[in-house]
Design a protein that fits this description.
The chain has 254 residues and is α+β, with helices and mostly antiparallel strands. The chain has one domain: Jelly Rolls. It is built from three helices and twelve strands; from the N terminus they run H-E-E-E-E-E-E-E-E-E-H-E-E-E-H. Strands 1, 2, 3, 4, 5, 6, 7, 8, 9, 10, 11 and 12 form a twelve-stranded antiparallel β-sheet that branches. Helix 1 runs antiparallel to helix 3. It is globular, with a radius of gyration of 21 Å.
Length: 254
């Protein structure tokens, strides 16, 4: 039992060393009336494929659709989350990754969020958060909420999106100064904010819109990444710790 306990501590220590320090985010977006205006869904490369997310929304919120619709590789299925009317209110969607198969967690390279609608539900306003292996609380990767279209679009927002039929919007979040957004991740979370004009919107541009919308209507979420693999030196250290633990236990038994 001591061997297992010591090895587990070593694994958690290794996972902590793998976790990336703060990175600078690169945030970009695309939109248009056709699915071809946004990137194709990378269904096979998303670490949340096949995982049902958990929604935590304030009392009085509207939730329409399933989190399964966000990981089915389709831009046709939807999940709408409207938070309640309190300024600053938000909802969360959390995916627990398969750390039974990969106990060191997952390295995340890029996050892609897709929405579809003909009103402010198509806009994006959210945080990206992760829980590291062995961690006790979520860590927000972005400083300010990720919003798109941003303030640079100004008064053209309504012309671009309202009265033009369905539109598709995609935001892409990656690390501009590193390979990974985060390493050794056990859980992934989106915190969704209102995008309407009177509900504590994170984007000042949304406050100029006539439409009062309280959330986002998402069609897909891709979290591109792979299982965490320790560097050879780290793996050697872990193996050495496990071997020492085994020797220690054998000597104690004698």
């Amino acid at each position: 039992m001591k061997v297992l306990h010591t090895s587990l501590l070593a694994a958690l220590s290794l996972a902590a060393s793998i976790q990336a320090s703060a990175v600078t985010l690169d945030i970009s977006g695309k939109f248009g009336p056709n699915t071809s205006d946004v990137d194709p869904i990378t269904f096979g490369g998303s670490v949340i494929n096949g995982i049902t997310g958990t929604i935590d929304a304030p009392s009085g919120s509207l939730v329409s659709g399933s989190t399964d619709n966000l990981v089915d590789g389709s831009l046709a299925t939807l999940l709408r989350i409207d938070v309640d009317d309190n300024a600053g209110a938000s909802s969360t969607i959390t995916w627990t990754l398969d750390t039974n198969t990969n106990p060191l967690g997952y390295d995340l390279e890029e996050v892609r969020v897709y929405t579809r609608q003909d009103n402010a539900l198509v806009f994006h306003s959210y945080d990206v958060e992760v829980l590291y292996v062995g961690g006790s609380s979520f860590v927000k990767l972005n400083d300010d909420p990720i919003v798109y279209p941003g303030t640079e679009r100004g008064v053209t927002l309504e012309d671009d999106f309202f009265g033009t039929g369905q539109n598709y919007v995609e935001t892409i979040v990656s690390a501009s100064d590193a390979t990974y957004l985060a390493q050794g991740v056990a859980q992934f979370r989106l915190t969704v904010y209102p995008t309407g004009d009177s509900f504590g919107s994170a984007n000042p541009v949304f406050a100029t819109l006539a439409n009062s919308v309280k959330g986002m209507q998402m069609t897909n979420v891709d979290v591109l990444g792979s299982a965490t693999v320790p560097e050879s030196s780290s793996f050697a250290s872990l193996t050495g710790l496990a071997a020492l633990a085994a020797i220690y236990t054998l000597r104690r038994r004698r």
